[in-house]
Amino acid sequence: MLDPENVSQARIAVLMAALDGEKFLDDQLRSLEAQTVPAIDIWAGDDGSSDGSLLLLKRWQTRWKKGAFHILAGPRKGFSENFRSLMMRSDIDADFFAFCDQDDVWDKDKLEIAVKQLSRNCADQPGLYASRTRIIDASGNQIGLSPLFKRQPSFRNAIVQNIGGGNTMLVNRPAWNIIREGARRTGFVSHDWWSYLLVSGAGGHVIYDPTPKTGYRRHEENLVGDNASIGARMDRLRRLLAGDFAVWNQRNIDSLEKCMDLLDRDSRKLFEEFKSIRQSVAFTALWGLARSGIRRQSLTDNAALFLAGMIGKL
After folding, report:
1. Within this chain, do residues 249 and 184 fall inside the same structural domain, yes or no?
2. Contact 46, 53 (CB under 8 A)
3. How confident is the model at residue 222, as a pLDDT?
4. How many domains are there within the chain?
5. Is the residue at 183 inside a domain?
6. Which UniProt keywords apply (predicted)?
7. pLDDT tens digit string along 125-168?
8. Residue 222 lies in a domain
9. Can you tell me the distance from the alpha carbon of 64 to that of 197, in angstroms, rounded to the nearest whole number?
10. Are 130 and 247 part of one and the same domain?
11. Do residues 149 and 161 touch, judged by C-beta distance below 8 A?
12. Where a domain ends, among 186, 217, 248?
């Protein structure tokens, strides 16, 4: 068992998905180099970059002093499959595992804080740490914060919402064994939502830290924007009404169907209940949601959830 006050004992594997990220990749890697934990192995999956990303990664490979630095060819099937190709690998071994984007900036104590939280709270059980993020612009200036979630993380939440960006996540080895097995069996909507689903569904401990330790960079080229603005909330409502939310839920259901043995009994029961609710509409769906305890984090998001149930878009 690791001493939570002695992070020098911990080896951390950082899984990075890269694609045409030359513009900000150096900033990201410098913030990894500055981490207060001493032992970090980098596993970078380059998904066919056409800019200087691969050359930049190779330069960093020669100067990396904290551990190993592996550069792998991604599957060229999108960011989700790039992460999945890393998650499935049996040769990635560590005490803790982190996901990493190519364009963010990590506070120097980001990994130290996460390691201590997991070591103190769930040393012998599956554990996942995630946190709020600072939103930064292309120049690194803070322009906002991600939503502050206050409801306790749980499978009842995870089945309809992801609360942690992958760039904030750290998981321990028991959790990673579950996540890796799940990735070997099936694809998923996103690596971070999938991790939250599996760890919470397995009865693991999920920690949500309200203090941001990651600068999430919002710029023209990145794939996912912030979700805190009024515009982002309106976009989520539009997608819900268009059926996108239902499509994501169905994909999660299809993936979880292949991983039932990884979930605990209560989560399997809730999963079947959720599938039944999705086949209902109007007040039957409302009653099912109310009775199940399935909830998103905010009042407005729960209103949208119940609306989705009412109109058959769940």
Report:
1. no
2. yes
3. 55
4. 2
5. yes
6. Transferase
7. 999 999 999 999 999 999 999 999 999 999 999 999 999 999 99
8. no
9. 33
10. no
11. no
12. 217
Distance CA(208)–CA(210), nearest Å, equals 6
CATH assignment at residue 185: 3.90.550.10
Residue at 231: amino acid letter: G
Is residue 224 domain-resident?
no
d(CA 238, CA 228): 15
Annotate the chain with three-state secondary structure. CCCCCCHHHCEEEEEEEECCCHHHHHHHHHHHHCCCCCEEEEEEEECCCCCCHHHHHHHHHHHCCCCCEEEEECCCCCHHHHHHHHHCCCCCCCCEEEEECCCCEECCCHHHHHHHHHHHHCCCCCEEEEECCEEECCCCCEEEECCCCCCCCCHHHHCCCCCCCHHHCEEEHHHHHHHHHHHHHCCCCCHHHHHHHHHHHCCCEEEEECCCCEEEECCCCCCCCCCCCHHHHHHHHHHHHHCHHHHHHHHHHHHHHCCHHHCCHHHHHHHHHHHHHHCCCHHHHHHHHHHHCCCCCCHHHHHHHHHHHHCCCC
pLDDT digits (tens, 9 = 90+) for 56-85: 999 999 999 999 999 999 999 999 999 999
